[in-house]
């Protein structure tokens, strides 16, 4: 996250850390993408995070990747679904959405437990207005740390008009209707590498909606290069169908 600040425990309870096993280890995992809690057994993330991946785990409830916190829940991934039309063309991510089905614990049949620190965000029922202020969060690269942040960072971004983001001096025709732009045209405030798969959350009438999934960009925090997100309202049928299927 560029232009972020440390988030307080429990303020982004839908944030997940999607982690992969380090080569030739049994229990060493490293954060590589964000994710978003949809319910006790499902996490939404970006397709480019898990394309041809395996050996994943998801950590929920934490705001510090270095510490084992009481609120942490580590859950194995039982299965994943990558959108059938996902493609990467010259680093532009199309239909960049995927679902992780978490493994239920043998003791109680639960995947994640809902707590003050682990909570689902809602799927958005309708499009939201341009200029609306929303929030992003993640453990990704910052302006001062190319390795990413061990602390969960957050920042506020604005939803950017689609035609403005399709302007020739911004992303032009690279942007399709399954994507949306958010951030600041002036730069400085953005998602970055390692935030991918994580939440763009917009609050309306007291409810937190998952409006976007961090997907791609041209660098981070640059002028006229806002962050690009998978447009969740375009994928509601796909998400519901996959969740129904298991
Ligand atoms: C990435 O590499 C990435 N500035 C994610 C988000 C953005 C850029 C790059 C948006 O996963």
Automatic annotation (TrEMBL):
It is found in: Secreted, Extracellular space. The chain holds residues 271 to 516 of 516 of the full protein. Transmembrane segments: none annotated. It comes from Clarias magur (Asian catfish). It comes from the Eukaryota. Residues 1-244 form the Peptidase S1 domain. This is trypsin. The active site is at 48 (charge relay system), 96 (charge relay system), 196 (charge relay system).
